[in-house]
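At your convenience, could you comment on the folded chain following this short note?
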Amino acid sequence: MARKVFFSFHYTRDSHRVSQIRECNSISQHFTKSPFIPRSEWEALERTGTTAVRNWIDKNMDGTSVVVLCFGLETHTRPWVKYELEKAHREKRGIIAIDLSGMSTMQHQIDSAGINPLRKAFDSSGTELFYYSNYKTYHWINNDGRNNINKWVENAAQLVGR
């Protein structure tokens, strides 16, 4: 049975880069992905209010083994990313963080590195999730994500007993 993964990211800035990761052969062949809604649908969902967004996230994280956090320059500022990470931690899901710096957007723009959102998400005692040894951070380009993401996801699941 394929593992189900949930992607967490800054939708407006990084959806194109994340779609490159989601559609690479390693993900497509080895994992079941949570839904990826078009930008217009995400924006419409956000306009309906926080309860609707929270319900969508909760529904789509259900049954996942690992949250794949894809972060760029501004991802750490997104409240829903923080919610997703803290929820994943509470529910003992694996988490991997992938630095998107150096990847090109559709407009051929390349962001510099951003703050890892694991530094902005906390456990119930106030400790940054960044300090948990079972949550690993990788760089998509420098760590050859295209060929290694399947190993990263599997390792993340095993580290939390999933």
The first helix runs from residue 11 to 22. Residues 3-159 form a domain with the Rossmann fold fold (CATH 3.40.50.450).
